[in-house]
Amino acid sequence: MELHSSWAEAMRARDYAAAWALERQVIAARDPATRDDPSLPYHERWVWNGRPVEGVDVLVRCYHGLGDTLQFARYLPALAHRARSVTVEAPARLHPLLAGIAEVSLHGFDPAHPLKPRACDIEITELPGALELAPDDVPASYLRVAPAPIPALSVGLCHQAGDWDPDRSLPEALLAPVAERYRCLSLVAAPSMLPVINPDGCPFDLAATAALVAGCAAVITVDTMVAHLAGALGRPTWLLLKHRPDWRWDPTRHDSDWYPTLRLHAQPRVGDWTPVLAGVASELDAFFDDQGETIHGQPAQPVGARLLG
Prior knowledge:
Elements: H1 2-12, H2 16-29, E1 57-61, H3 66-72, H4 76-82, E2 85-90, H5 95-98, E3 105-108, E4 120-123, H6 127-131, E5 155-158, H7 176-181, E6 184-186, H8 206-215, E7 218-222, H9 225-232, E8 237-241, E9 262-266, H10 274-290
Parallel strand pairs: 1-2, 1-4, 2-3, 5-6, 5-7, 7-8, 8-9
């Protein structure tokens, strides 16, 4: 726990060399017999044993969430350049997005029948340390998706994160002032009570969701997969964070090394979203004013299902 805390502090301080050194300390102290331990849930397993990736066949396992996979997929081109071959074992839902990032072999991740090990196995979140590449050493906007034909100047809204951390989500009603002031669409795969152009929500399909995000002029989202999707697509994004977010977001900063187009807004107190949303609303007004565009007061007109995937 102490090493993990030190690692998180080093990552937030952008002292990546220190973070990678701590990772190697952890690897050196591990019992090799516990590698990829089948008795543990996948997200608790460790995979990489510290072996260099240069010139060997590498299997990248994606044992964490969809957002984690998208965040670290930026490293796949650099890995493919160094390794002899790269196989990526990832959820099939992500394949349409990952296919355009690098020349790799994609395989679906079946928890009951994982692929056999290669010369070097690595979990995708371990790639920065293995390659010793900081976030700004690789391209920040690395997804390529054709935008959905949604109305111009639409703002994408996502209020809901995963059930495993409900503190990341916020009541949808808190986004009503934004939805009433701008033309908005929901990026949540569920019906919305807000005045959005897609009251039935977005499709439960990552490629379709990515197309919607790509078509948005701006995105407002909580800390969930949509934030990584918007950042990887280079969309102007306002990220709403709980008071103590995880290691990848520094609550004392408004920017992010991981995604230059993100603006971070963390709760000043646990559970207090009011100043967060006030700050975002002010910045969103300035964002559209700077572009010489305004859609204030325009009603949300529902669009056809064909436009939403």
